[in-house]
Design goal:
GO terms for molecular function: copper ion binding. The protein is α+β, with helices and mostly antiparallel strands. The chain folds into 3 domains: 90 residues, Immunoglobulin-like (Sandwich), CATH 2.60.40.1220; 280 residues; 104 residues, Immunoglobulin-like (Sandwich), CATH 2.60.40.1930. It is built from 11 helices and 18 strands. The longest helix has 33 residues. It is elongated, with a radius of gyration of 31 Å. The N and C termini lie far apart (63 Å).
Length: 544
């Protein structure tokens, strides 16, 4: 490989990544992949007694660092409570003497693939507090987000480039083209340097991003150590570094070549360890498909780069032709492997087909598929029109050199898009089905108050609970049993008038079947005296 080609490759790599970083800088940061399915007590619940345990349930196993899940009182002051993750739940042990009032659960967890997600919800014991402190949503540092996403691009480019070139040099390159070994190794070293830089920046940025510590977290020793020793990113970093050292440091003996190939594959296997595939199942299918996908991509990427070097070198035409033939045969299986495993990954990772056009992840995936489609067309032209003549036609070799160069640039773009893809959430921007949220309203009723609860606020069987209190907060005995009417105005449905059961002084319970989703209205009419009959309307949002 000439110095000019090396310079062009490095400049092209920098230019491509710079363009992607500019795009990332203007993009919204990706959201976490774990989703909160529900809480017990539910958001807004009003309880008669303190719960023993508050439970948060997610769609996948999560990790919770010390202090990342907090119980706060209405003023925002922390309450001593132990939180511990158990598989796909987080359990908070609540003090038994929790006084009456409202409480906030402020939570932040790390999903299976290392992405953080957080939020907050409230519940009350007895009478809710008149005011509840708002917990600010966690906001990431834009520069940390940019470093985190940009480093992933360098990691993918570096590892796929290094591993692919090493495999080309060890397996595909003809022995008669020995003059190509040194330039291939030099270019592999360039990609390894990019991978090393990307891994170190990604390790630091992931800790700061995961903990929300901002720029100071990039150089915080404790955060770095926790990330290295306790997260999927730390494991992947160690595996990648070991693989890169083995791939470049082994000798030229048969045993050395075996170690070289093993190192290249080890570095490639580090990529699924901290990617989307950790969050989806079945694990054997998704992780296996991801491993085959990145390995096939590396063989294609490194093989095309190696071919460019071979065709530009002074290697004998016969040796170059044999190398081209070997790669052409391997490329057919590589394309089939990429197509099959890519389809499996999209099927398991995307929530539905609509996510292809409604999420940044889906649009990036479509862009990558489009680029790869063009590469396949160029490769097919090379295979069937130019490769058969490369050994005996100098013009065919020159034309093949040009088209393979185009193929290399396109694959460089596809690999860069892959690096962008892994930094995005498959569900970011995608509208998920609404979760049921029990209704709990504290409303004025004449001179007193009424607490109205509807659970689970989902189509089907529900229970309405009503508590009436006078101006002093004591249970109110009405002059007659309350009347409850439920209507769905948007469907012109109702009113439903379920029978209620008295459970205590001013306390009532009534079962009701709500047949359709939508914005229901619960009308509560209470005769509090001979002449007073206040009526209140409580909105009830019912989900499918």
């Amino acid at each position: 490989m000439t110095v000019q080609l090396l310079r062009r490759t490095v400049l092209g790599l920098v230019a491509t990544v710079a363009g992607v970083l500019l795009t990332l800088a203007s993009a919204a940061p990706a959201t976490g992949h774990a989703m909160l399915l529900g809480t017990d007590p539910a958001d807004g619940d009003v309880l008669t007694a303190p719960p023993d345990v508050v439970t948060l349930t997610f769609n996948e196993p999560v990790q919770a660092d010390d202090g990342s899940v907090r119980l706060l009182d209405a003023a925002g002051e922390p309450i001593a409570a132990e939180a511990r993750p158990v598989d796909d739940t987080v359990e908070i042990t609540v003090p038994a003497d929790l006084p009456e009032g409202s409480y906030v659960v402020d939570w932040s967890v790390v999903s299976a693939d290392g992405h953080p997600v957080g939020g907050a919800f409230t519940f009350a014991v007895g009478r809710p507090s008149t005011a509840v402190a708002e917990v600010a949503a966690p906001t990431g540092d834009p520069l940390v987000d940019l470093l985190h996403q940009g480093a992933q691009v360098f990691v993918y480019l570096g590892i796929l480039g290094t591993s692919g070139l090493v495999l080309f040099r060890t397996v595909l390159l003809d022995r008669g083209a020995g003059i190509v070994h040194a330039p291939v190794l030099r270019l592999a070293t360039v990609f390894a340097a990019a991978a090393l830089g990307g891994l170190l920046v990604y390790l630091a940025a992931d800790g700061a991003w995961r903990t929300g510590s901002g720029l100071p977290g990039l150089v915080d020793p404790g955060t770095l150590w926790d990330t290295l020793t306790g997260t999927p990113v730390g494991t992947a970093t160690v595996v990648a570094l070991v693989g890169l050292v083995l791939a470049l440091g082994a000798g030229a003996t048969p045993a050395g070549r075996a170690v070289t190939c093993a190192g290249a594959l080890l570095a490639l296997l580090s990529l699924p360890l901290a990617g989307h595939s950790r969050s989806f199942g079945p694990a054997w299918l998704v992780l296996g498909s991801d491993a085959v996908h990145v390995s096939a991509g590396a063989v294609w990427f490194g093989g095309v780069l190696g071919l460019v070097i071979t065709l530009r070198s002074s290697a004998p035409a016969s040796a170059a032709a044999r190398t081209v033939g070997r790669f052409s045969t391997a490329a057919l299986w590589v394309v089939l492997a990429l197509a099959a495993t890519g389809t499996v990954l999209a099927w398991r990772i995307l929530p539905d087909l609509a996510a292809l056009t409604s999420t940044g992840y889906g649009l990036t995936l479509l862009a990558k598929v489009a680029v790869v489609g063009v590469v396949v067309l160029v490769a097919a032209w090379n295979r069937y029109r130019l490769v058969p003549h490369v050994g005996d036609d100098d013009g065919a070799r020159a034309r093949l050199r040009r088209t393979v160069g185009t193929e290399a640039w396109l694959i460089l773009l596809a690999v860069t898009l892959t690096g962008v893809l892994v930094s995005q959430s498959p569900t970011d921007g995608h509208t998920a089905p609404a979760a049921a949220r029990p209704v709990a309203e504290h409303v004025a009723l004449g001179d007193g108050m009424a607490d109205v609860r509807v659970a689970p606020a989902r189509v089907g069987a529900n229970v309405v609970e009503i508590e009436l209190n006078d101006a002093d907060g004591e249970p109110l005995e009405p002059a007659a049993d309350p009347q409850v009417r439920l209507s769905l105005p948007e469907q012109d449905l109702g009113p439903l008038t379920p029978a209620l059961t008295r459970t205590g002084t001013g306390r009532y319970e009534l079962p009701v079947d709500l047949p359709l989703p939508g914005g229901w209205e619960l009308e509560l009419s209470v005769r509090t005296s001979t002449f007073d009959n206040p009526v209140v309307v409580v909105p009830v949002e019912v989900v499918p």
